[in-house]
């Protein structure tokens, strides 16, 4: 949204200039005394490769409303080579005890035999922190766990056990190398002394590493969220009736695709679970460049339990209200499509130039007797031979975002960048919200499922709505923010 600086380190509504502002990474959100605190990793500007890109201190921004953010600058700087954290102040968590705010974080020191260790810092105001002179507090017990991939501590009070629990990402020393990722359990009576448990908190035996784990109760179940960069990379979740497990895999475990990553959340005073994830940069800032660690923080999202106890995501109402200037857009054929056994399309007349600042394109597609599905071509040519294709399959509920087929005889549909799922239906209205900010896209279907992507295309948006085998009436709206307008 807005910030108090002109050259911003964090601006949810504006556009980060990668030549000036370093990429943003893993969020550490914390709600305290009515304010939203977002600590996050900020890499140096202009660095694309490790280890330089990974030398991240923590930056700190605060908000009273999820809309206006104040930048408080770097609050946890890198240490010296003799300390625990010269190569990175990496992901962790924040907890308050007796008026003292404690941060537990990952200290990076790449040349060490244990290059990632658990470190600690404290504050009385949440702004000025002092690192613990004992750092690092502890590393892995290498008889049980591998020396690398020991990170991302998440600390919470477990009332029924009368002790603090710390969950962290680790790897056991046995099993197939690509399947050793576990969530490690450590316990403490006082946040001072910690016991590492040999038996992991969660050991699914199916992934390399479960990054940024956290647990919370929502919708009558315990939910454990973590991110994985292998095996269909995504921020995903497991669920259980108890913190003691068993942790089961839901029918739809991913909260987005691979480009909404390392999301972590907080509980606010409205009873909401607000999450923050980020979208990757690409090398050389082109569409065929390698995906890199770090990029831009995505819009804050509310995670909520919906039908069947499934976790869904939507934008908080404060952000929707901030886009306070909404107007209807004209469509070809008046947006009325009849395609029985065939396909029909209509073009949405969006202004040729859209501000890089945050805006929302909303498409309401009221369908009847739909057997195929609903699609939206973005950055499309009139012949629909280029651009991105969003498609909702009415028969399966599969939602995809990917490149279009380029109309050559030998072509096959390319693998989508993002896949998600929504309840299938053949009648009713699909609501498609496309949030645009510079070259990032955050797409929400029915305020339930999300698809995040980055596109560096320098062509007009040119949306074209397609209906396959059914009827539809389409309406389109474009929402922007008017400075000084109502919220």
Describe the structure.
- It is globular, with a radius of gyration of 23 Å.
- It folds into two domains: 316 residues, Glycosyl hydrolase domain, family 43 (Tachylectin-2, Chain A), CATH 2.115.10.20; 158 residues, Jelly Rolls (Sandwich).
- It has one helix and 32 strands.
- The longest helix has 6 residues.
- A hairpin with a 5-residue loop joins strand 15 and strand 16.
- The chain is 1% helix and 48% strand.
- The N terminus is likely disordered.
- Strands 22, 23, 24, 25, 26, 27, 28, 29, 30, 31 and 32 form an eleven-stranded antiparallel beta sheet that branches. It has a five-stranded mixed beta sheet with strand order 1-5-4-3-2, with no helix packed on it.
- It is mainly β.
């Amino acid at each position: 949204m807005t910030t108090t600086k002109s050259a911003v380190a964090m601006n949810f509504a504006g556009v980060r200039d990668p030549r000036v502002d370093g990429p943003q990474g893993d969020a550490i959100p914390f709600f305290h005394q009515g304010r939203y605190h977002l600590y996050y990793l900020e890499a140096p500007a202009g660095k694309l490769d490790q280890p330089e890109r990974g030398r991240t201190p923590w930056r700190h921004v605060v908000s009273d409303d999820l809309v206006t953010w104040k930048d408080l600058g770097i609050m946890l700087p890198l240490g010296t080579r003799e300390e625990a954290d010269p190569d990175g102040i990496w992901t962790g968590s924040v907890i308050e005890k007796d008026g003292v705010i404690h941060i537990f974080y990952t200290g990076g020191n790449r040349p060490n035999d244990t290059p990632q260790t658990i470190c600690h810092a404290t504050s009385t105001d949440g702004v000025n922190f002092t690192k613990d002179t004992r750092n690092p507090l502890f590393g892995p017990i290498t008889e049980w766990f591998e020396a690398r991939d020991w990170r991302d501590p998440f600390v919470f009070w477990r009332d029924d056990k009368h002790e603090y629990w710390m969950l962290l990402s680790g790897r056991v020393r046995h099993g197939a190398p690509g399947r050793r990722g576990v969530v490690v359990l450590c316990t403490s009576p006082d946040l001072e002394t910690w016991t590492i448990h040999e038996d992991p908190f969660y050991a699914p035996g199916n992934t390399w590493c479960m990054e940024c784990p956290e647990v919370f109760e929502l919708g009558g179940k315990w939910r454990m969220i973590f991110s994985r960069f292998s095996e269909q990379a995504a921020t995903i979740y497991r669920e259980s009736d108890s913190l003691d497990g068993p942790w089961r895999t839901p029918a739809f475990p991913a909260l987005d695709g691979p480009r909404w990553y390392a999301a972590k959340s907080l509980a606010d005073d409205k009873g909401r679970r607000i999450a923050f994830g980020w979208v990757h940069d690409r090398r050389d800032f082109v569409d065929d460049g390698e995906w890199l660690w770090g990029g831009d923080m995505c819009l804050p999202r509310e995670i909520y339990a919906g039908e069947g106890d499934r976790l869904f995501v939507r934008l908080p109402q404060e952000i929707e209200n901030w886009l306070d200037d909404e107007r209807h857009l004209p469509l070809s054929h008046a947006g009325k499509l009849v395609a029985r056994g065939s396909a029909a399309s209509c073009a949405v007349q969006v202004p040729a130039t859209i501000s890089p600042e945050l805006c929302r394109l909303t498409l309401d597609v009221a369908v009847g007797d739909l057997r195929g599905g609903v699609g939206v071509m973005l950055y499309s040519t009139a012949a629909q031979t280029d651009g991105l294709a969003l498609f909702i399959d009415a028969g399966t509920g599969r939602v995809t975002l990917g490149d279009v087929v380029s109309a050559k005889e030998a072509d096959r549909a390319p693998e989508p960048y993002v896949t998600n799922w929504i309840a299938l239906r053949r009648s009713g209205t699909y609501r498609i919200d496309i949030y645009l900010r510079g070259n990032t896209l955050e797409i929400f279907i029915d305020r339930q499922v999300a698809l995040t992507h980055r596109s560096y295309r320098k062509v007009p948006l040119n949306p074209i709505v397609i209906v396959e085998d059914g009827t539809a009436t389409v309406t389109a709206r474009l929402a922007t923010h008017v400075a000084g307008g109502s919220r």
